[in-house]
Amino acid sequence: CAQKTMRYPCYPCILTLAVVSGLSPAPLQGLRAAIVGGGASGLLLAHRLLNAGCTVKIFEGRADPRGSDALEGRAYALGLGLRGRTAIRSCDEELWQQVKGAGFGSDRFTIHLPFGAIDLRKPDPAREPSVLIYQTALCGALLDELERRHASKDRLRISFERKVEDVDPLTGAVDGETFDLVAGCDGVNSATRGAIARRCPGFDVERVELPGSLKVVRLSSMPEPLAPDAVHLVPGKGGLAAFLEPTKDGACALLSWRPGEADPGTITDADEARLLLAESFSMIGAAFNTTAVGEQFVRQNSSRAATIRCNAYTYGRVALLGDAAHSTGGASGQGCNSALQDAAFLADALLETGGDVAGALERYGNERVPEGHALLDLSVGPGA
């Protein structure tokens, strides 16, 4: 590959070779794909498949992220590292620049302890920094480019607020409409994975609910006295902890707590929530001592994390990607990066096999299952 970043040629390389040799620049023309879930991996896969000539329909149960200010779902920020940006660049450099422009570049990570702060990671001038970006901003950038490039070609359909009721993995039917390929990019509570489990006796899913809960607070700036260009972990009182990430327009605070007698997530009064947060985080309490913060905290439901380990990622015409196949529960911060890699690899496999869905899914499973299991083991430790 000319980019020297992937095992197999990326799409731009394949397209260049096709044009130079006089071959069709649409090697997957005629293939119909359904993508269940319009998150980052589903949208990147859509880019890659549409570039290759496919017809793509995206089913997304939530609203368009570009017009939503909801604090659930895609509310928190994440970090796109080497694996994530390499996957996005497998489409082209322009797409990565659009995504990068919606985020904040940082490679600093500081943990604050009672005896002082420790810098666990510092910037390296020789290395491109990670990009910290809200999920809404990431999906919004991918959607903007998807529509700009492909909306006029009549090969792209996007259905928001459209929850899939049933998938038949063997026929490729999604709520009665048949496709050559179905990509399950629908997260930890994947309906696509559930459809495989109902129809395939040998399919095994291990789901582990992780202790603790979290809520998100969006701040207009990084709290004083924290460095504005670093990610910070700040322990609080009563088992609370704040994980703060700088973003393009401020900072994202992930507030988490372990199970206990007093559950902060049950607070329904904004002033009570404001006072609790201000008192729990003495060093940065002023940032939480506002009515807006209290209102954000009480108006969202607490989130619970879970790990997912599947013994297979494919069945029939279906492939599982991202958290639908291998969730680490956020323990490693690599969930989105792995999901984007899944999308890039699946697109590459389809191109390498000339659109042979069965062959591509076999390659995808052989490569991604060991990768997903290793990621989970590295994140939370190996199981039995």
Write the layout of secondary structure elements.
Blueprint (H helix, E strand, L loop, with lengths): L10 H11 L10 E5 L3 H12 L3 E5 L17 E4 L1 H8 L3 H9 L2 E3 L1 E6 L2 E6 L8 E5 H16 L5 E4 L7 E2 L4 E2 L2 E2 L2 E4 L6 H9 L5 E5 L3 E7 L10 E6 L5 E7 L2 E8 L12 H11 L4 H4 L2 H8 L7 E5 L3 E2 L2 E3 L2 H4 L8 H18 L4 H24 L4
Parallel strand pairs: 1-2, 1-12, 2-8, 5-15, 12-20
Antiparallel strand pairs: 3-7, 4-7, 5-6, 9-10, 10-11, 13-18, 14-17, 15-16, 16-17, 19-20
Task: Walk me through what this model shows.
This protein is an alpha/beta fold. The protein is built from 12 helices and 20 strands. The protein has helices spanning 11-21, 40-51, 82-89, 93-101, 135-150, 191-199, 270-280, 285-288, 291-298, 323-326, 335-352, 357-380; strands at residues 32-36, 55-59, 77-80, 104-106, 108-113, 116-121, 130-134, 156-159, 167-168, 173-174, 177-178, 181-184, 205-209, 213-219, 230-235, 241-247, 250-257, 306-310, 314-315, 318-320. A 6-stranded mixed sheet has the order 8-2-1-12-20-19, sandwiched between helices. A 6-stranded mixed sheet has the order 6-5-15-16-17-14. Strands 3-7-4 form a 3-stranded antiparallel sheet. It is globular and about 60 Å long. 43% of the residues are buried. Mean pLDDT is 90; it is low at 18-23.
C-alpha Rg (nearest Å): 21 Å
Task: Report strand %.
Answer: 15-25%
Kindly report the average pLDDT value: 90
Helix content: 25-40%
Helix count, DSSP H or I runs of 4 or more residues: 12
Class of secondary structure makeup: alpha/beta
Strand order of the largest sheet: 8-2-1-12-20-19
Low-confidence stretches: 18-23
Please give the alpha-carbon distance between the first and last residues.
Answer: 39 Å
Number of strands: 20
Q: Quick one: biggest sheet?
A: 6 strands, mixed
Label the overall shape. Answer: globular
